[in-house]
Design goal:
single chain, 95 residues, mainly alpha, 2 helices
């Protein structure tokens, strides 16, 4: 009976060490997975930030083009004679 108890204790110690080692490996693998996910998230964030900057540039260029077109329209309508039909309408568009 005492021999059985000693044998069970040895098995229990072995199982405990094995369980501790398995938990250590699991934590390591989870940490590695988190590092990989972090890297992918950071990469995606960088791509999105670059896209935002590109879109901001397009909006600024479009805004400048719109302002230039309004200015040209205003200059054109002001250089036309007063009898030009629709002149008031064009001024309203430019303003």
């Amino acid at each position: 009976m005492e021999g059985d108890m000693n044998e069970m204790e040895v098995k229990l110690n072995h199982a405990s060490r094995h369980a501790a080692e398995s938990q250590r490996i699991l934590r390591y693998l989870q940490n590695e997975e988190l590092k990989e996910q972090w890297g992918l998230t950071e990469c995606r964030n960088n791509l999105l930030m670059a896209e935002v900057e590109e879109l901001r540039t397009v909006v600024q260029q479009t805004d400048r083009g719109c302002k230039m077109a309004k200015h040209e329209l205003l200059e054109t309508t002001e250089s036309q004679p007063a009898a030009c039909p629709g002149r008031r309408h064009l001024r309203g568009l430019a303003g």
